[in-house]
Write a structure and sequence with these properties.
- It is built from 13 helices and 19 strands.
- By secondary structure, it is α/β, with parallel strands linked by helices.
- It folds into 3 domains: about 150 residues, NAD(P)-binding Rossmann-like Domain (Rossmann fold); about 160 residues, 2-Layer Sandwich (Dihydrodipicolinate Reductase, domain 2), CATH 3.30.360.10; about 80 residues, Alpha-Beta Plaits (2-Layer Sandwich), CATH 3.30.70.260.
- Strands 7, 9, 10, 11, 12, 13, 15, 16, 17, 18 and 19 form an 11-stranded mixed beta sheet that branches. It has a 6-stranded parallel beta sheet with strand order 3-2-1-4-5-6, sandwiched between helices.
- The protein is elongated.
- The protein binds NADP nicotinamide-adenine-dinucleotide phosphate.
Length: about 425
């Protein structure tokens, strides 16, 4: 491994990068074990007094990744394409160790990055890419090394979790909560990645790669976010003993299954108790048994903590090249099955209160072999519209999808019917 002190180049001095610079420069081993040789950021006019004098500035982050005097490149720019991708590939190709927090990049190019780092025998650290300050990568790679993991179930997007909680606590609609979250900095200006499940899917893909050696492509994965969940559904779920949580689940028990979507989960389940912006990952394994890791899934300090952990790992000179131990083969999965092909469903159908609608619905249920456990009618203001809340027995997902399409075409339904799986 590289001789000490290790020279570090940091590309991206934003939320996370600034904190990493600050943690590194005030560390007692600064200049003894490591030092920052160069940094790169886009806006040269922005004041960054926390960066010590004498550190080289590169306007072109690719040049930083090529600098022959740099041993370790830390990429904290973000994005799966463009400059961040270039920096990571150039660094490894130039035999430099690489640390990144970039989940989107690893979910897309994890296989290539891993293979290249194995080939060039360089360290590839990505602890910060999943669940911020929660040390899930290390636990899987090291602590659970002799376990067979059968399932990973996680709340991996703090923004979605925060939104679901706030809707319930404040009893206000999704859009209003989202606007407040954006003002408070809990949601991005463009919240698509968070509220449509994409961010959670990136993290799930990384964990799947690590645990099952399978990299599921997002284009072939069932990914559904929380944007359709309403205050009404959250309250109704609660009345029946459930919470609605965005769960990212990957299982290899019978066949490989991997998906992200909102589930109704019993309010007694440990994952139902994960509040606000927290993340949590439940790992089911044969020796250690079920394990729940929880903590801050984002934020500059927790994420910098994960980057620092990788830096010290790299300094310790472990042989942890690549994503997998000993360069095992990674399979890309273009189409993943959703977690559980047959599940119980919560189905909400809004109907005008007229004779015959119930028998129309029943006939659709019969056609698609949907057996009902319980059905409730909830008359809305003015008694013109009723919400039908239906809890089903186990139903094939495909059958439920077809049924919902039919229900939405029925005369007498108001808005779209909504179905969520029930986790048990
Ligand atoms: N923030 C979190 O809580 C968190 C949690 C987990 C993982 N992550 C990951 O950590 C990474 C960084 O996130 P962040 O929140 O720190 O992002 P950020 O605040 O937006 O910072 C991005 C940095 O990259 C720089 N940059 C952009 N384009 C560049 C270019 N062409 N050349 C050089 N530098 C460029 C920006 O420069 P300027 O400063 O000049 O604009 C900025 O310093 C991302 O991959 C993100 O997914 C973040």
């Amino acid at each position: 491994m590289t001789s000490l002190p290790v020279s570090i180049g940091i590309a991206g001095i934003g939320n996370v990068g600034s904190e990493v610079v600050s943690q590194l420069t005030k560390h007692k081993e600064y200049k003894k074990s490591f030092f920052i040789k160069a940094v790169s950021y886009r806006n040269k006019k922005k004041k960054r007094n926390f960066i010590p004098k004498g550190i080289i500035y590169y306007s072109d982050a690719k040049k930083l990744a090529q600098d022959k005097n740099i041993d370790l490149v830390i990429e904290l720019i973000g994005g799966s394409e463009g400059i961040a991708k270039d920096v990571c590939f150039i660094a490894i190709k130039n035999n430099k160790h690489l640390i990144t927090a970039n989940k989107a990049l690893i979910a897309e190019y994890g296989k290539e990055l891993s293979e290249l780092s194995n080939k060039n025998l360089v360290y590839f650290g990505f602890e910060a890419s999943v669940a911020g300050g929660v040390p899930v990568i290390k636990v899987i790679k090291e602590s659970l090394v002799s376990n067979e993991i059968s399932q990973i179930t996680g709340i991996m997007n703090g923004t979605s979790n925060y939104l679901m909680d706030e809707i319930e606590k404040k009893s206000i609609d999704f859009e209003k909560v989202l606007k407040t979250a954006q003002k408070l900095g809990y949601a991005e200006k463009d919240p698509t990645f968070d509220i449509e499940g994409i961010d959670a899917a990136h993290k799930l893909a990384i964990l799947s790669l690590l645990v099952f050696k399978k990299l599921p492509r997002l284009s072939g994965m069932h990914v559904r976010g929380v944007s359709e969940v309403t205050l009404y559904d959250i309250k109704t779920a609660r009345e029946f003993g459930y919470k609605i949580k965005l769960l990212a689940i990957c299982s290899n028990e019978n066949s490989f299954e991997c998906s992200v979507e909102p589930w109704l989960i019993s309010q007694d389940h440990s994952l139902a108790k994960i509040d606000g912006v927290l993340n949590a990952i439940e790992i089911n394994s044969n020796l250690a048994g079920p394990l729940l890791l929880t903590g801050a899934g984002a934020g500059s300090k927790p994420t910098a903590s994960a980057v620092m952990s990788d830096i010290f790992d790299c300094l310790a000179g472990g042989n942890r090249t690549g994503i997998l131990r000993n360069g095992e083969k990674i399979n890309e999965i273009s189409n993943s099955k959703s977690f559980k092909s047959e599940v119980k469903f919560y189905l909400r159908v809004s109907v005008v209160d007229k004779v015959g609608i119930l028998s129309d619905l029943t006939s659709i249920f019969k056609t698609f072999k949907i057996s009902i456990e319980t059905i409730y009618q909830d008359l809305q203001k003015g008694n013109q519209v009723a919400n039908l809340i239906i809890f089903t027995h186990n139903v094939k997902r495909t059958q439920m999808q077809k049924a919902v399409l039919k229900i939405n075409k029925l005369k007498g339904t108001v808005g779209n019917a909504l179905a969520f799986c029930i986790y048990n």
